Amino acid sequence: MISDTSGPRTPRTRHEIAAAIARDIPAGSFVNLGIGQPTLVADHLAPGSGIVLHTENGMLGMGPAAHGDEIDPDLTNAGKIPVTELAGAAYFHQADSFAMMRGGHLDVCVLGAFQVSQHGDLANWDTGAPGSIPGVGGAMDLAIGAKQVFVMMTLFAKDGTPKLVPSCTYPLTGLACVSRVYTDVATFEVGDRGARLVEVFGTTRDELTTRLGLDLG
Amino acid sequence: MISDTSGPRTPRTRHEIAAAIARDIPAGSFVNLGIGQPTLVADHLAPGSGIVLHTENGMLGMGPAAHGDEIDPDLTNAGKIPVTELAGAAYFHQADSFAMMRGGHLDVCVLGAFQVSQHGDLANWDTGAPGSIPGVGGAMDLAIGAKQVFVMMTLFAKDGTPKLVPSCTYPLTGLACVSRVYTDVATFEVGDRGARLVEVFGTTRDELTTRLGLDLG
Amino acid sequence: MKVCDSAAEAVADVEDGATVLVGGFGMAGMPVALIDALIQQGATDLTVVSNNAGNGDTGLAALLARGRVRKVVCSFPRQADSWVFDGLFREGRIELELVPQGNLAERMRAAGAGIGAFFCPTGVGTPLAEGKETRVIDGRTYVLEMPIRGDVALIGAHRADRAGNLVYRKTARNFGPVMATAATTVVAQVSEVLDVGGLDPESIVTPSIYVDRVVVA
Amino acid sequence: MKVCDSAAEAVADVEDGATVLVGGFGMAGMPVALIDALIQQGATDLTVVSNNAGNGDTGLAALLARGRVRKVVCSFPRQADSWVFDGLFREGRIELELVPQGNLAERMRAAGAGIGAFFCPTGVGTPLAEGKETRVIDGRTYVLEMPIRGDVALIGAHRADRAGNLVYRKTARNFGPVMATAATTVVAQVSEVLDVGGLDPESIVTPSIYVDRVVVA
After folding, report:
1. Residue B137, phi then psi, degrees to nearest 5
2. Chain-chain contact of B141 with D76 (C-beta, under 8 angstroms)
3. CATH assignment of B14-212, given 3.40.50.300, 3.30.559.10, 3.40.718.10, 3.40.1080.10?
4. How far is CA D131 from the centre of its chain?
């Protein structure tokens, strides 16, 4: 376990976070990258790593985004963005795709989050704001399905409130499902024994402990 | 409803029973023919009837038994007899095959029986004899799956005991699942309101009422 | 199975109050011609089960805009271009049952497979499981989920044969094969209808037993 | 996924006491080379889940004859050539859990799909449902059935690619695709291994995520 907390002096960019996640995904893994920022992880997977991407709308072996003549309206990712097919790909229907996910066959899934609790509870589908129209998609299935769930997010919301929290206040997506949280200013492990700080970027353990109000292990 | 009970003077052969069943299967039906005698029904389906045969080991569009060079060990019916494939056939795995059956998508299934009760209970998998080794296969799934279950059997066992009974004494395959019983000496409807005699062959309503000990509607 | 001359003919008998399963994930696999025909046909007070709740002003969104839909059962209504649904929902003119995408697929699969209900790991501890029965099995908590059945399914497929066998194209496969098992009447919009025998029996995704009507559109 | 040089290598780590799912319906789809290798390998005290309980004196029957199997979970042990099982069973030297064929398939599918248990229409009111929980849902009675998981699945398929995608041949498909989802380690015996990209992504039946080892035999 890395526990060096005297890291670089500046926060990570989104691409740096994505690259860090990519490095932590074992070669040969089957991986689902959630809609939004987690899709950036694909750009940082090492060539030859043999990592196979699942998209829950019904495909294993998803390739990069499609451009120009490659665009095929029948071939999209879960974010409805046109993508490409790699050699060795396979298509399947929704019940089979979610059986694959919910049956625990995916090694890793990477999701965005509104909040993650120190014990790994995830809130990423609804802010509960009055008048908001909730949409859950496959988020709850992904949260409980993959062997490991990594979250990729900024550690603080725009108004400065922490998104790694003692206990989620937003509506939950899943209980005790997240194992790692990768943010701009730090990486954490979360779980039964609470949050543990793994690395910091442009901040310190003391500053984070104070701002988060959490024991960071 | 046919209720003529002054029928032919002789019992039906197995082929005559099979032909009678074939006549009662509507054109275009999807049908499963159980192992053993029910497979004879296939020989009597009218050409052009558009009836499609399902075999629970994973196929729709099963053709006649294979002979000579047609024999392919990868293509058998549920009785493990080599069969052929018709144009328009489709293969699927066991969970999909039984989902098709149990989901109520088959129009008719034809099964053999040890006993059928007047209310349509079926016993066709185990005589319960001491030392017997039970085997159920797909019998219980077929019994509850098809929209209509027809039974094809002799009306009396070799020792003369009736096989259409007030209530089954052999271990059950399914409850209230049979709608018609085709035998050598008579055809019956069975169900909520008990057994109703449809046709006799080489016997009479009175004789059957006496031998079966049933009100025959 | 009937090859219809027009989408209008294919949806002519959809009744007011019907539950209509509508295939597609975004626009991939969306049976646009069938939905347009349903708009013309005029059925109202519908319950629509679909992954999304309409995009832009056409297709499902147009059906909603005409006030024909009483209730939407879906996983992800809120999209960048879901203004029709958003408006109706905010005005309280449409009911929403939000269902995790995997549950949507599995609940329809259960309906098609004769499963009465199932214990599911998705959504445990979240607002979408509130009021539902839960059970701990082998140390894990599950929520009891019920089947979703349709009166009609409108799906998009790639090719059919004249028997009604279907194949799909890439991720446009999505909900089609599942919905085809879960509705009383199944209508498929395809790009081409081949003679019987024109599809590889090993590659058929939806066997003919599930399909009532196809139309080229 | 590993392409093994021999069946011996492919089954080298099967442990005493393991639950082994064995594909095939009769001889169609039976992974004979893998079973022979398992006999050589020597693992004992096994629970075997398979549709039948061995035919003749080879394959599964040979494994049983050597006393390696403590318990058989199957739908149809009793066949014309099942003398090995019959003898062991009559002598009380082997345990039998008799499961309707559709339940066998669906219970393994549940294991693979993350379903904790399901209410099933098959077997209601029969000896095979005795002692099991039942529930009336929408007026129909169902039996609660539990998942069947394997430590290892040994299956026969037609072709693999080097990623582990599988296709099957005709009714030899049977239990293979279901068992591949339900075991921790999945080993497939195939007739040929193609390069990645050699199988049509629309026609792959078992996606690579489910397959750990393939061997040509």
Report:
1. 50, -135
2. no
3. 3.40.1080.10
4. 25
The angle formed by the CA atoms of residues B89, B91 and B92, to the nearest 5 degrees, is 145
- Chain B contact for D78 (CB, 8 A cutoff): yes
Q: Where are the domains of chain B?
A: 14-212
Buried b (16+ CB within 10 A) or exposed e, B123-149: bbbbeeeeeebbbbbbbbbbbbbbebb
Question: Alpha-carbon distance A166 to A119, whole Å?
Answer: 8
- Does B141 contact chain D (CB < 8 Å)? yes
For residue A86, what are its two tokens? 């790699």
Spell out the per-residue pLDDT of chain A, length 217, in tens: 444 455 678 999 999 999 999 999 999 999 999 998 999 999 999 988 999 999 999 999 999 999 999 999 999 999 999 999 999 999 999 999 999 999 999 999 999 999 999 999 999 999 888 888 889 999 999 999 999 999 999 999 999 999 999 999 999 999 999 999 999 999 999 999 999 999 999 999 999 999 999 999 8
- Chain C residues within an 8 Å CB radius of D120: 114-116
Cβ atoms within 10 A of the Cβ of C83, count? 15
Kindly list the residues of chain D whose beta carbon comes within 8 Å of any beta carbon in chain C. Answer: 106, 110, 113-121, 135, 137-138, 140, 142, 146, 167-170, 200-203
In Å, how far is A71's CA from the nearest CA of chain C?
12
Q: Where are the alpha helices (DSSP H) in chain C?
A: 7-10, 32-41, 60-65, 83-90, 101-113, 176-182
Q: Which residues of D touch A87 (CB under 8 A)?
A: 196-197
Q: Using the beta-carbon criterion (under 8 Å), do D116 and C142 form an inter-chain contact?
A: yes
D94 touches chain B (CB under 8 A): no
Retrieve residue B73's tokens: 């060990």
From the list B74, B97, B134, the residue facing D28 with the nearest CB is B74
- What separation in angstroms does the CA of D208 have from each of B91, D9, D180, D199? 20, 19, 10, 11
Give the closest residue to C149 by CA, choosing from C110, C126, C198, C183.
C183
